[in-house]
Amino acid sequence: MGVLSEFKKKRPVLLVAALPVEARPLASALNLKFYSHGEYRNDKFTLIITGVGRIASAISTTKAFCLNGDYESALNFGLCGSGDSKHEIGEMRYVNRIREMCTGRDFFPDPLISHQWKESAIQCHDLPVQDRKVMNFDPLAEVVDMESAGFFQAAAHFLPPHSIHCIKIVSDYLNVSKQSIKVIEDLIHLRISEISIFLERICRSVIISPPKIPANFQESVDAISKSWRLTKTQAHKLNRTAIGAHLRGADFGLIIDNSEQVQPTSKTDRNIAFRNLCRELAQ
């Protein structure tokens, strides 16, 4: 665990998992001690097991904050499915947009903590998805789960978006029933060191000022938002996506320069250009 084991901070980070099989590897790696039913703790982290589904995740996350509203950050960790076999089993994804499929609403975690994973939108369904055609309702959301929307909405009542994180491991191609407990735990164990590093960075972020991008790039991002007449939500997402790209060390100057030359003539063209720009910045 390196610095994480030595790092001292006053307020813990809340970790949220749906299933014991997802939680056990984290509890072991972080040296968390059993506290009560579905909850593990040490002085740095509290890990809760919510059960499956959007509603269960929302209820358990809200309960955790009500019992201890002093959490510094919250992270939802777990498995996700993919309808495309080009995505490798075991891939890690940082979720930068959550589509709640039952309402069509979108939620935007702010990817301000540097990481090595691909950023991805996710579809959150109320029932297990087995038909790949269902993914076509939001083709930009490459993966699917059942908890992220409930978790995010609950946590957003207590924390700003930049303190709410969602990371997922691709575990199946919409055939999760075929995965054994051992296979799932092995997938998670392979990523434990990466997850631990990311948690260390969350802890460090508690005591540093909010990250920014260079002034010249910020001016370009603001100019694009104004020129394209982005909505407030779109402008916020573009700015946070640019910050995330900068923190990952991406050379996105050319992407911004090319985008400044684009002049959408309709709302449809604007939305397409916006999605394309965010996708390029998130790669």
Plain-language structure description:
It is a single chain. The chain has helices spanning 3-6, 20-29, 54-67, 148-155, 181-189, 192-205, 215-227, 232-247, 253-260, 267-282; strands spanning 13-17, 33-36, 39-41, 45-49, 73-82, 92-100, 105-107, 118-124, 141-145, 164-172. By secondary structure, the chain is an alpha/beta fold. It has a five-stranded mixed β-barrel. A hairpin with a 4-residue loop joins strand 6 (92-100) and strand 7. Helix 2 runs parallel beside helix 5, helix 7 (215-227) packs parallel to helix 9 and helix 8 (232-247) runs parallel beside helix 10 (267-282).
Under CATH, the topology of the largest domain is which? Rossmann fold
Mean pLDDT across all residues, rounded? 83
Unreliable spans: 1-9
Task: Spell out the helices and strands N to C.
Answer: HEHEEEHEEEEEHEHHHHHH
CATH H level, superfamily name of the largest domain: Nucleoside phosphorylase domain
The spatial strand order of the largest sheet comes to 5-9-8-6-10
The number of distinct helices, counting runs of at least 4 residues, comes to 10
From the alpha-carbon coordinates, what is the Rg to the nearest angstrom? 19 Å
How many separate domains make up the residues? 2
Beta percentage is 15-25%
Can you tell me the CATH architecture of the largest domain? 3-Layer(aba) Sandwich
How many β-strand runs? 10
What sort of overall outline do the alpha carbons produce when their principal axes are compared? globular
Q: How many angstroms does the end-to-end distance come to?
A: 28 Å
How can the largest sheet be summarized? 5 strands, mixed, barrel
Helical residues, percent: 25-40%
Quickly give the structural class.
alpha/beta
> Which CATH C-level class of the largest domain is it?
Alpha Beta
